[in-house]
UniProtKB/TrEMBL annotation:
<dbReference type="Pfam" id="PF00293">
    <property type="entry name" value="NUDIX"/>
</dbReference>
<dbReference type="InterPro" id="IPR020084">
    <property type="entry name" value="NUDIX_hydrolase_CS"/>
</dbReference>
<dbReference type="InterPro" id="IPR000086">
    <property type="entry name" value="NUDIX_hydrolase_dom"/>
</dbReference>
<dbReference type="GO" id="GO:0016787">
    <property type="term" value="F:hydrolase activity"/>
</dbReference>
<dbReference type="InterPro" id="IPR015797">
    <property type="entry name" value="NUDIX_hydrolase-like_dom_sf"/>
</dbReference>
<dbReference type="InterPro" id="IPR020476">
    <property type="entry name" value="Nudix_hydrolase"/>
</dbReference>
<comment type="similarity">
    <text>Belongs to the Nudix hydrolase family.</text>
</comment>
<feature type="domain" description="Nudix hydrolase">
    <location>
        <begin position="24"/>
        <end position="152"/>
    </location>
</feature>
<keyword id="KW-0378">Hydrolase</keyword>
<protein>
    <submittedName>
        <fullName>NUDIX domain-containing protein</fullName>
    </submittedName>
</protein>
Length: 154
């Protein structure tokens, strides 16, 4: 019940106030790390995020980097926290975006190494594996563009 009330308040705040609260919580400058996780069939893991806009709730697992944390470690931690899956982050970042003021987003390829898929219901409504040619319609635009390039990589 408390979670539902919190989500309702968050959605009613709107983008400008949400952004201000997130910036305040993270001391002004935000660094985001997310992972592109594929299964043995080449499908990509996507999450339907509870706190994202209802028009585009699907996206990669990820979140904010803690002070002093390596970017690739943050991506692996966020994947584990949101999905229960263990991953090894491989190689350099596949993308770095800075489309928002005071925010940098980093994206990493992650190889599945263990764990059982179980979502954190505080942040995630659903987790599913998608074929690269069958991505959900509510997928974030940045993530759709990234996956078009990331899934074409060998």
């Amino acid at each position: 019940m408390v979670r539902a009330i919190g989500v309702g308040i968050w959605r009613r705040l709107g983008g400008r106030w949400q952004w201000r609260l997130v910036r305040w919580r993270h001391h002004g400058f935000l660094v985001y790390a997310a992972g592109v996780v594929h299964d043995e069939d080449g499908r990509v893991l996507l999450l339907r995020h509870r706190l994202w806009p209802e028009s585009r709730p699907w996206g990669l697992p990820g979140g904010y980097v803690n002070a002093g944390e390596r970017l690739e470690d943050a991506a692996a931690r966020e994947i584990r926290e949101e999905t229960g899956l263990e991953v090894a982050v491989t190689g350099p970042p596949v993308a770095v975006f800075s489309g928002y003021r005071y925010r940098v987003e980093t994206y990493w390829t992650a190889r599945l190494t263990g764990g059982d898929l179980r979502i954190d219901p505080t942040e995630v409504l659903e987790a599913r594996w998608f074929a690269p040619d069958d991505l959900p319609s509510g997928l974030s635009g940045n993530h759709r563009a990234l996956l078009a390039g990331a899934t074409a990589r060998p």
